[in-house]
Amino acid sequence: MTTKAPFGSGQAPRPVKVPVEDTRHGITRTDEYAWMRAENWQEVFRDPARLAADIRAHLEEENAYQAQLMSDTAGLREALFSEMKGRIKEDDSSVPMKDGPFAYGSSYRMGGQQPRYFRKPAQGGDEEILLDGDHEAEGKPYFQLGGIDHSSDHKRLLWAYDDKGSEFYTLRVRDLATGAELADSIESTGGGGTWASDNNGFFYTLLDDNHRPSKVFFHQLDDDTANDRLIYEETDPGFFMSVGGTRRNDWIMISISDHETSEYRILNAADPLGTPLLVAAREAGIQYDLEEGGDIFFVLTNEGGARDFKIMTAPVSDPVRANWTELVPHQPGRLILSIMGFRDYLVRLERLDGLPRIVVHERATGEEHAIAFDEEAYSLGMAGSYEYDTDVLRFSYSSMTTPAQVFDYDMRTRQRTLLKTQEVPSGHDADAYVTRRLMATAPDGEAVPVSLLYRRDTPLDGTAPCLLYGYGSYGITIPASFNTNCLSLVDRGFVYAIAHVRGGKDKGYSWYDDGKRAHKQNTFRDFIAVARHLVDEGYTSHDRIVAQGGSAGGMLMGAIANMAPEAFGAIIAEVPFVDVLNTMLDASLPLTPPEWPEWGNPIASEEDYRTIAAYSPYDNVGAFDYPPILALAGLTDPRVTYWEPAKWVARLRDTKSGDNPVLFKINMDSGHAGASGRFSRLEEIAYTYSFALKATGKADVKPAT
């Protein structure tokens, strides 16, 4: 690095080394920090107090060190939090969605951390609070609501919560007439359930000790949970599983999938004790999703070489694959993301030329029309519906400069009705900002999209700091949507950038394929290419770029730190998946077998082992002059376990050259999503932003107004 970041001095933790050798495929590696992985990690997820004393002491020492180096940002963090909170309408409410005689929605009270769920008469009337998240969270250091589903007779509420951060959800049933909880309470579920058609029982997934949803059960109300009937058990630990219903309340759908293969088993919702029907047996690389359509199912699938997906139909009487008929053919470059069926329409969300659009297909005539917008970059999503027999579709729209808008769209008349525009109480002048879509050239010649947001008065002469965000895994597309939080950086002169790197589906399914397994290095090279392009175009300079990513995006941060430390002024890695090789070698961890299609199976394949070993951040730490690095984690995180960033930070400090600090902040009361509660989450964002400002020497800059 050419400049030293303005961090104070302090004694960084230097944990003991206990070398452990591991030999696979004739290759021996040594892990000196393997001891940080608690042997009783399953118990720790359920009860954090069970963490071994030596590991807890080390994590607390890390927290003390980062607090010391960041102590001078206390006032800045308070100012950032105040700004971000000021952009939130504290007593905000969703637009209620109609379901028969009622309309259901969610809201917050002034100062409230958790949402409340309510309903009101569909024809107008007073709100009735069905569930108060603030009340349920009282006295708990962590609380997160899961799935919430009212019964079709509107008499009961099925809801779930997690009070550890480990994503073991407890299911409860509430009588909506009295507000009382029924005796039906089930622990260690996947976070939700779905009602049988008679509303006298519900289906749910149960997590095993390794945090995998391996079984679907049916629970009859007022019966002992010991009598719950096993509907289906998935014996392959490499597959995720969930259970859901349909808006017509006629089918229960068990979805089984990994990242490239899927399978459905369906059950008549009126026959909860029946045997699920297999629709199409899993076949490696073949994906399909089912959507209701009355006497047919709509099938979104890639079978037959439809890389960007096509839509088929199947008769509900016999929906096996042999009976599928093509409705919307495959069109290369047009990625169909999701579908939604109505009595008279089929609606699809697709991505064409890098931008989303909604297409309405009239079932009787086959006529189609699209809903699209004109900005360079924007986010568009279908908000769904409780009702099947309706002409109204709800969707949302935003861009990096346009606050979120919610519309009801009449599919018959093609009229859109604006129901709500996101309020920014402290004020927002969209004309003060510019959003751009750029293309950076990757080393292999691919054009990598970049979404930008900056103030119109920001000098574009290389002096502006830049926060560059990236993810690039699992086919997830990071939308160019409105984000009130990042305005605290943008108003201080930052350019806010999103690198739409390979591994997402920003440019179609091939963009995903070209960023996974043997092609994973493309993700990292794309991100570095974006950073260099922003410098070449005068938006920023390398020592002013703060790279940020979380989870698999945190792995991206670890990789680019090793590959091009000179290209960045600082790096923020949130819950970073940085110990990729060790985790993919540990089949007991919750997500390892289901993740093999994404990363490869280094247990079975030497080629996969060598591919992962070549980029796994923990295994490639070197004697480099790294920029300042901030890692964040949660103790009870079942997705990226706490010991991954803990080990990575320790090895970085022990191996790197230069004096730039490596900070590690771990939330001892939360998991993958960080602190629970909307304001607690803002405090965490204020912390990361204060690090970005401090690392770029902008901690004293006041926001423009």
Automatic annotation (TrEMBL):
BP GO annotations: proteolysis
Claim: Chloroplast is one of the keywords in the record: no
GO MF, one example: serine-type endopeptidase activity
Transmembrane among keywords: no
Domain (Peptidase S9 prolyl oligopeptidase catalytic): residue spans on this chain: 481-698
EC number: 3.4.21.83
Transmembrane region(s): none
Family: Belongs to the peptidase S9A family.
Primary enzyme class: hydrolase
Name the UniProt record assigns to this protein: Oligopeptidase B
Keyword tags: Hydrolase, Protease, Serine protease
Positions of the Peptidase S9A N-terminal domain: 20-421
